[in-house]
Amino acid sequence: MRRLSKLAKVGILLLVFLGGILLINAMLVRLTEDTADWKEFYGFKDDTIDMVFFGSSNAYCTFVPMIYNESLKIDSYNMSSSSATIEQIYYSMVEVFKTQSPKVVVLELYSIREYDISEYNYHAVHKAFDTMNLSKNKIDAIIYNVPDDKKQAFLLPFTVYHTRWKTPSELKNNIYGYKVYNKYYGASPFTIVQDDAPLENISISNHYVITEKKAYLPQNRMEILDKIVALCEENGAKLLFVKSPYLVEDEDRPGKINIFEYINGLYDYAGNNNIDIIILNDFLAYMGLELRDFFNKGHLNIVGAGKASEYFSQYLKENYGYLFEDCEFDFGVENSEKLKEYYREIEVFKEKNNYNQ
User: Fold this and answer.
1) Please, are residues 128 and 84 in contact by the beta-carbon 8 Å criterion?
2) According to the model, what pLDDT value does residue 163 have?
C-alpha cells in the first residue's frame, strides 16, 4: 500500500511537471497569423468545418473563408501557413481530421514546389506545428520534418522563445489575443504594396501559355501525396488540387523547376485517383484580376483575394454544390461580421492605393 502511495505521488508530480511545461509553452510560443490558427481551430465544436484550405502563403492570401461560407452556406477554414509543403501539410490534415469531417479539402499546389527535406525550412516548420497540441501526430510530424539535432526546439518550443518573459504584453496576447492575429478564419490577405517587386513587365497568362514541360515529384514526395489522398478517402472528403493565381515564370526561384511543370506532370496521377486539378489562372478574365491585384508574382493582395474567392466560391457551388447539401451554416452571424470587416478593409486599401483612378 505504501509503495502504491509513493507511485501515486510520483504520478501526480509528473502530471504537474507536464502541465507546467504545457503552460510555459502556451505563454512563450510566439503568436503570428500562422501559429494563431491552431488556437482558434481547437475551439470549434467537433464536425463543424465543412471545407478546409491547405497550403502555403499562396493559399492563405487567396482563399477567404467568409466569402465561401456566405456563398455556399457552409463553415470553412484556411489552415495554411507560410512556406508550407506537403510534408508539413499531411500532418496538419491528420490533426484536422481528428475532430472535423470536412466534405471538401482544397490543396493549393504551390506546396508541391521543388523541396529537399534535408534543407528544411526552420521557420516554416515552427509556424506549422508550434501551437499544435502535443500528441503522437505532432511528434510524428517533428520526427519526419526536422533533423535530429533540431528536434528539441520543436518538441519544447519554449526553449526557443524563453526570453519572451521580458515582454508581458506579448505573453498576455498569447493567451487572450489570438483573434488579433486571426481575423478571417485563417486567411491572411496582404494589405500593403510591395514596392521592391515591380510588376510592369510581368504578364498575366493562362497556365498553358506558361510552360508545356512536365516534371515529376521524386518517390519520397509521391509517397506523402499518396498519404494525403488516402487520408481524404478514409475520411470521406473530396480532395481538390487547386493552383491559386500566379504570374508567369517562377523567376524568384532561380535554378528551380517551374511549379507548373510539376502540375503538368500530376494530371495522370490525379486522374487515376479521381482528383480534379483546377488552375485559377485559366479563369483570370472571369475573376477580373489585374496586375495591381497582386502583392507580388505569387501572392494576391486583399482586393485580388476577394475577387478570386468570389469567383471560386461560385465555381464550387456550380460544380460541387451537391457535396454541401447537408451542411449547416454554424458561423452565421460571426461570419457576417467578419465579412463586413473584410470588405471595409478592402475599401480602405483601395482608397489608400488610388484604386479608383
Assistant:
1) yes
2) 42
CA dihedral 258, 247, 302, 57 (to 10 degrees): 10
Q: What is the average pLDDT across 152-180?
A: 51
| Mean pLDDT across 29-47 | 77
- Beta-carbon contacts of 319 under 8 Å, excluding residues fewer than 6 positions away, are none
**Residue 257 — left, alpha, or beta (φ > 0 → left; ψ -120 to 50 → alpha)?**
beta
CB neighbours of residue 190 within 10 Å:
20
Name the amino acid, one letter, at 71. S
Quick count: other Cβ atoms within 10 Å of Cβ 290? 14
- For 322-338, write each residue's pLDDT tens digit: 999 999 999 999 999 99
Cell readout for 161 is 522563445
Q: For residue 8, give every residue at least 6 positions away whose Cβ sits within 8 Å of its Cβ, in sequence order, or none.
A: none
pLDDT value of position 159: 52
CA dist 291 to 89, 124, 211, 283, 349, Å? 29, 28, 20, 14, 15
β-pairing verdict for 294-296 and 299-300: antiparallel
